[in-house]
Amino acid sequence: MTPQFELETLKIRLADARWAALDLRVRVQRALRQLILDGVLAPGLRLPATRALAQSLGVSRDTVEQAYAQLRLDGYLRRKTGSGSFVSPTIGASLLGKHSHGLAPVSAQPVALSVRGAQILASGGVLDQQSVKAFATGLPETRAFPHDVWERLRRQAASGHAAGVLLHGDPQGAEPLRQAIADYVNLERGARATAGQVLVLSSTRQALYLCAQVLADAHGPILMEDPGYFGARKAFEMAQLRVVPVPVDAQGLCTASLRADTSGANTVYVTPSHQYPTGATLALERRLDLVAWAAERQGWIIEDDYDSQFHYAGLPTACVQGLDARQRTIYLGTFAKSLYPGLRIGYMVLPPALVQAMTHARSILDGHTPQLDQLTLARFIADGHFAAHVRAMRNIYALRRDAMAQAVQRHLSHIVTAHLPPGGLQMPCLLHQGRDELETIRLAAQAGIVLPGLSRLYAEAPARGGWLLGFAALTPHEIGSGIARLARALGSLH
Fold first, then answer.
1. Omega of the bond prior to 236 within 30 degrees of 0, cis?
2. pLDDT confidence of residue 466
3. pTM score, two decimals?
């Protein structure tokens, strides 16, 4: 080691903030190892004696001795009796980040993926909005969330269950939360559920993936609304299912088309409370027809009730699960829309015949949802905070929906027609004939505005494009200014 340069370099490496929490011995070992890997300390180079290096670094000799010992065990150093410690002369060029002759850099080599892996890569995944931007969809208002109440209940849950929350939990979910969910959906959604039928999960997409794995064979068909939820289609495609579209009209899923299907599918995915993205509510006669279809086909209904709490035109229609005496309906719910997305808690209410299979599948996938979060949420629901929060948000979102409709009418009526949804967190807007959806999205992006397009939610491109504008996470003022800014961005379309 040349005395000055490498010593100073070593001191700089030791000061790396990433290693600040590490034991001093480990920091010395890590810094020396990195200097070797970077080629600063070349193979065969003699290192200073431990006493001399310790004095130069201002550390104990024992610290340096332990660092050297670990580096020798790992193969980076060799000790010659009577001569000292040397960088191993056998460290290869590839380990040092140098490419051997004739070999392409690692980054340039093609990656061999499975057929499934290649399909997943090509799909582009699902991009969740990680910050509030006009007019991203599916985002609730998080600024009004009662953090103080939540944290108090979290502390109570932690102290009340002590060490138990630090262990693995029941794959089906914590019993207090399962009971709270069952009580809630029975009271508020007209379901027929017991705690034993509830499976606590991390998200709706996880629920959909489990359904695809358990209910359908690879490359088999599954029925889905058209247009429909993008995340659902991606979850089914990742499970290697063939998505068969079923048209939607002003009354929701067209059950006549469902009955006319000849694909052989026995499972259908629906959003009956607020069809995604049209906002239509599935008519009662179609709900009954849907239940009858599942019974006749010995099939399954996947009912995604993602935001039914937020209904603004009268009372919400009871869920399909409560109408299904044959128990062929799998009910999906989430707290991402009613509370906040980062909570990562959703659930399924399962027919008794599916509970064990779905629980086993979930145990293989990711084990369980963090127990402390589950127990906190159970208290939040049981103490009435959840119902109070939903009521408050329902009133707020109704005002914001109306503010969105008024702003679109005021500033963009020459470009789109807004359709007032009876519920939900977003508003569909159809472009006037001759308007290009991709062009409006491009111009909006230049102005920093997110315009979720409608066309990607269809199996085939629709005759008219449009947008799905999220309004729940924005105040009326933010909605008005955002729409005005969008109108200016689209000024060239006049």
1. no
2. 95
3. 0.81
Q: Which residues of the chain carry a pLDDT beneath 70?
A: 1-5, 92-110, 126-131, 162, 492-494
Q: Compute how many other C-beta atoms are within 10 angstroms of the C-beta atom of residue 447.
A: 14
Q: For residue 320, give the nearest of 61, 328, 312, 18 by alpha carbon.
A: 328
DSSP 3-state helix, strand, coil percentages of the chain (rounded to 5)?
45, 15, 40
Report pLDDT digits (tens) over 215-235. 999 899 999 999 999 999 999
Q: What's the confidence (pLDDT) of residue 109?
A: 61
Angle at 28 between CA 27 and CA 34, to 5 degrees: 85
pLDDT at 161: 76
Report all structural domains of the chain as residue ranges with CATH numbers, in order of start: 5-87 (1.10.10.10), 157-383 (3.40.640.10), 388-493 (3.90.1150.10)
Ramachandran region of residue 24, left (φ > 0), alpha (ψ -120 to 50) or beta?
alpha
Cα dist. 486→140, 165, 212 in Å?
A: 21, 48, 39
- Cβ atoms of 228 and 271 within 8 Å: the answer is yes
Report how far residue 450's alpha carbon sits from residue 195's, in angstroms, rounded to the nearest whole number: 40
The candidate with the shortest Cα–Cα distance to 473, out of 150, 130, 143, 129, is: 143
CA distance 136 to 485: 15
Bond prior to 227 in cis (omega within 30° of 0): yes
